[in-house]
Specification:
69% helix, mainly alpha, elongated, Substrate Binding Domain Of Dnak, Chain:A, Domain 2
């Protein structure tokens, strides 16, 4: 398949939206990580917002790319324990 369908884009908006919510609710309690966690979350939220903008403009390629970046920031934050998440369906972490 060489196209990004509405269904595929909506699926990734749902997944990344869920991951954003979970990360936001589970910022590490370690005070030395809070500033970094906030920064990673901010970047993810900005890319998620960009993805919505691109989708509204029917630019699905850039919308999908922005979602990928958003989720990448979340995954990176989860891997280095900025977010205390234990969900291998939303993040690249062990349960």
């Amino acid at each position: 398949m060489r196209e990004i369908t509405d269904e595929k884009l909506d699926k990734y908006f749902d997944i990344t939206g869920s991951a954003l919510k979970k990360a936001k609710e589970n910022i590490s309690k370690d005070s030395s990580k809070k500033e970094f966690a906030t920064d990673f979350l901010d970047m993810a939220q900005r890319y998620y917002k960009d993805a919505k903008y691109f989708k509204e403009k029917d630019d699905y390629v850039n919308a999908f790319a922005a979602l990928s970046y958003a989720h990448g920031w979340l995954d990176a934050g989860a891997r280095i324990k900025l977010f205390d998440v234990h969900d291998s369906k939303l993040f690249t972490v062990d349960d």
